[in-house]
Amino acid sequence: MINPIHLKTLMEVVRRGSFAAAATALGYTASAVSQQMSALERDAGVTLFHRSARSVLPTDAAMVMSRHAAKVLTDIDALLAASTRTEHGTSQELRLGIFPSLATYVLPRLMRSADWPALGINLHVSVGEPQQTISGLRIGGELDVALVYQVGQSGLAWPHTVNRQWVGDDNFRVVLPKSWGIRPGAKIAAAQLSDMPWIMHHPGTSDATVIERLFASCNLHPRVAAYSDDFNASLQLASVGLGAALVPELALTHRPEGVVVLDVPEIRLARNIFALLLNDRRTARIEVFMDKLSGILGETTHSSSLDSPS
Length: 310
Fold this sequence. Notes:
Elements: H1 4-16, H2 19-26, H3 30-44, E1 49-51, E2 56-58, H4 60-88, E3 92-98, H5 100-105, H6 107-112, H7 116-119, E4 121-127, H8 130-138, E5 145-151, E6 162-177, E7 197-200, H9 206-217, E8 223-227, H10 231-239, E9 244-248, E10 259-262, E11 270-278, H11 284-303
Parallel strand pairs: 3-4, 3-5, 7-8, 7-9
Antiparallel strand pairs: 1-2, 5-11, 6-9, 6-10, 6-11
Helix pairs in contact: 1-2, 1-3, 1-4, 2-3, 4-11
């Protein structure tokens, strides 16, 4: 049986690069750290460090074990937190900033799930676009966590005092009016869409710039029929035949009847979704909350993905 304390020590050694630095951070002696790592090697049956007179270098096995140890320790903390809540009936306040489509299609599913009461979270929600929620981390500490998205390398900036954690990807899909007669799920080249009318983002926004560059790289020069930064509006306009649109999978969760989703291999773009967490407010319950939210996001985007070819 592997000792969780040894896993925590391993993570510190890998992070800090030496037994001495890990010992200082954890309040041990360097000798105690060395003994813990030797015990961990015996228990795991692998070599974790190449030792020399001047240094210790982690092996590939140490790097893999360190990565998995983070989740194991989080799960143990969550178990203890859940047990404490059961005994004392306590809950933790979480002030959450979240962007609209995640608040519409993912967060409610988590809150309706059977797991939600056991998390012991008293949730306060602020719905807004990423720049708004990030400001809540900067000014006065109104938020504990901000769920944001980034398209490509478009310009988002956040305080150096927060930790960024990947939550999932929300892939963009090409949507056409059903009245155009292209079968659902069809795989077509981007060039075939060039002369068609399109519903595009308003020019000048960071997302619009990324999309325009992607389209240009595919030799796709759309004829703009409308500008819209509201994906639900774009879908409704596409459903009545106004034009094609590029929308993320989350927005397709409740898509209208009059649209079809295509597979255009050259158009690969996603909203990368991250949680920005204030380091001093990070707890096991918040980690479990983020893990469950990430799982529901994956299920939601998978179920709203491509139409089956007919």
